Amino acid sequence: MDLNEAITGRRAVREYTTESLDELTVTQLIHAAMEAPSAKNVQPWTFTVLRNQKLLDQISEVSKALVLKTITPPLHFDQLQSYLQDPKFHIFYHAPVLILISANADGSEVIEDCALAAQNLMLAAFAAGLGSCWIGLAQNFLNSAEGKKLLGVPEGWVSVAPIIVGHPKSPAAPVPRKKPEILLID
Ligand SMILES: Cc1cc2nc3c(=O)[nH]c(=O)nc-3n(C[C@H](O)[C@H](O)[C@H](O)COP(=O)(O)O)c2cc1C
Q: Ligand 1 atom 9: the closest Cα is on which residue?
């Protein structure tokens, strides 16, 4: 796929079929993520692959409760609150796989590094005909001591990018972009 097609065509996908994702595909996505640049080439990332739907259900429930306790108006407050209070709302949208990118090293730029890896992963997923979505709603819990213990992730790591991947039920609608804000300095 042409790079521009991938950049403009990728969407956050929130509806998945029940089809699973084979190991080879997950490995290929991780390799694409690892091609990202990183400051001083530290490559400070670890990829935790979760397929256990019971565990994902559990993380979804705990994350919802945690976010509900911490959100404050005004930004999208009412809409988010009603989603989080809806027992049917699953933060991972029942996707077959969650790939969590964690920063596994100290450093002032490890978050940027992991975010770049995340974008590579999402673009590669799209190019492979798959859907993906970064699930920020999981981050509070995945960064808590309890969340790290549940996944067996060391306390010192930072959970940066929880990304769900799966086969989209249907193509996601395009999301409009703002006009570019460009500051030209002579
Ligand atoms: C850091 C980050 C956190 C996000 N968290 C969530 C989330 O918790 N749930 C969700 O459904 N989408 C989440 N998204 C997806 C955004 O809502 C989505 O990327 C945005 O609306 C633009 O749509 P597009 O990705 O289709 O272009 C997140 C995206 C980013 C970059």
A: 135
